[in-house]
Amino acid sequence: MRKKITKLFWIWQLDKEEAWINEMASHGYSLEHAGRMTFEFDETEQGLYRYKTLFLKGSAGSSENIEYFRFLEETGIKIISYINYPGTCCVYTRGLASDFPDGLEIYSDIDSRINYLKVTAGYLIFVAVFTLFAGVLNAFAAFLPQNGLALMNSVLVAAMLLLCIFASAATIKTYIKIGNLKKEREIHE
Length: 189
Fold this sequence. Notes:
Oligomer: single chain
Structural class: alpha+beta
Number of strands: 6
Number of helices: 4
Strand content: 15-25%
Strand order of the largest sheet: 1-3-2
Number of domains: 2
Helix content: 40-55%
Mean pLDDT: 87
Radius of gyration: 20 Å
Distance between the termini: 50 Å
Low-confidence stretches: none
């Protein structure tokens, strides 16, 4: 039986989204499709699969990513779904738990994890700048004398600035993770 769930995860909550999908798998639901806010699951054996969610540069249809998908499929990792964003794509993958008992670890080396976090940070910076710009424009519009929608513009300003703050905080956290990984890389060299 197919189960469709609507759930919102922010772009910087990829780890939380992945943990939730794996939790669903542990309860016997296998992810069959993921959208921006919708997830479709089929009932299956509990804990049958492990899931990994990742960001890649470019669209899912780019030749580089298609080649990477082929490589993953050869290692027993199936591409379940993907979502294209400007300049990047979010990819949902799964493997059999029996083949990956310690979890699905796609980014096993430090440089790959750093690159993944840089892609995520780039997207977060885009969101922060865009929402700040939109918030400033709405702030100017709210104070125009002929504006009959000043209250609505003020609410939009608050929402945009709040989203900008969240995206900025997530960007800072991402860069802290990148810094920690670079320190770890130096230790191992």
